[in-house]
Amino acid sequence: MDFTGKEAKSINVGVELRAIREKRGLSIRALARASGISANAISMIERGRTSPSVSTLYKMADALNVPITDFFQTEPDLDNVVFRKALERTRVPFQRGLWEGLGGEKFSGHVEPFALTLESGANSGPYPISHTGHEFVVCLRGQLEYQVEGQIYLLEAGDSLLFTSNLRHKWRNPGPNATNAIFVISGFEEGERPVERHMQLVGKDEADEGD
Predict the structure, then answer these.
(1) Of 53, 108, 144, 166, which has the most beta carbons under 10 Å away?
(2) What tens digit of pLDDT does each residue of 79-99 get?
(3) What region, left, alpha or beta, does residue 38 occupy, with left being phi > 0 and alpha being psi -120 to 50 degrees?
């Protein structure tokens, strides 16, 4: 599925993988045993000799107990003004979708805007999410079902939702077509990473659709 027709901004996944693995005190062999990915393949990824598939990234993220977005993290200088051209967006593919940063990853304030493209059935995972701050979402195309404290809101093109994000929430694309939506998470506490809470289990099947 071609989400944008544009190339993603280049990020060295291998460098991030090695940093996370070493931070957790794991050898390459230990990560290989935990993830089911061969030690040689992990070594090649860390040295930049090969690019991992999305499924490989998910296996390693599960083994390291981190969201897949951690592999695409950088430590930029934070700015008071962030201008982001469309071609310069950080793009992270995940199961049945695409995450695009809209500059929040480089902004000095506590605001994280991002765009999601979601295939039919894509969802935020089996467990509700909660974090500090506030959450705003506007559906640009297709359908987006949001569940907030058990109340279901069905967003269609042009619809929006705003709520206090310490309320338990999750989302999915219930429609037959792709969905495009803009999310803005703001006012979260220092050091909290709410965007990654949304992405940690994203794309995995719901354990119970009625949960």
Answers:
(1) 144
(2) 889 898 988 888 877 778 888
(3) beta
